[in-house]
# Entry
Amino acid sequence: MGREVIVSAAYPMQPGASIGAMLHGIDHIAIATDDPDAAAQELELRLGLAASGGGRHEGLGTRNRLIWLADGSYLELIGLEDAEGARSWHMGTATVDALAAGGGLAAYALDDRPLEADVNTLRGYGSQIGDPVHGSRIRPDGEIVEWWTAVPPRIGPNGLPFLIEHAMNGAEWGTDALAERAAYVHPLGSPVVLVRLDLRATAPADSAAEHARQLGMAFQSVAEAAVCSVGRHVIRLLQPPELGRSVVITLGADAEPRVVDTLGVRFVVERVERLHAEDAEPGLGDSGVQGS
# Structure
């Protein structure tokens, strides 16, 4: 079956000229949990992933644990310290809402640099994305980690990703930190990369058009799915019959394949032999839509 590019009429740019060409990939996937420390232990025990970062969002009512991946992305296990205070910012609100629904995916972010210029470009084509906003987190060692985010009108499992640009320095985002992350061997016996994020969408084509309208992302229609390559990662929007779980995170590692359902998410580990971060650059793959 042919692949039709889904581009919103409100976003007249051709896919090659869209902001999607400037996105570096999925930055992180945030999973809401009542207890980030317990969730980290769960993923290490059942999946073989180790959390080695995190801290408090000072004054914003949330805290997290981070699982660094070799390709530069990461999984965020985010919980609440103050639900009322958390409502003051987008990820806090997403976390409150996700926990009210039983936990699981709160939101996810795309790595976008330079953020401010891209936001201006998107607005020039009618996007309602918000201004870049500064954020920070205090690590247990006292170091302040900083970033800037731009948020579309609606984020979350049934919404859109937001855009983020990190301050590329320090113990988490400096050159040495990124090199250590790329070489880190998780307890499952290998570095681990993010391969794909599958999300349930009742109407994939409509959802893809909204991604194009607000974020300039060009999806392709493949069978009953909408598929988008973002940097080295793939995002698929699938109808409920094709996606048994609402969220499936596929990882790559030089380890035994495994499937684990926990924290409201299905985690799939696919074998990638002799894994190096620069080797893990998936495209659309075979684009087969399989039940998960």
Notes: The radius of gyration is 18 Å. The longest helix spans residues 204-215.
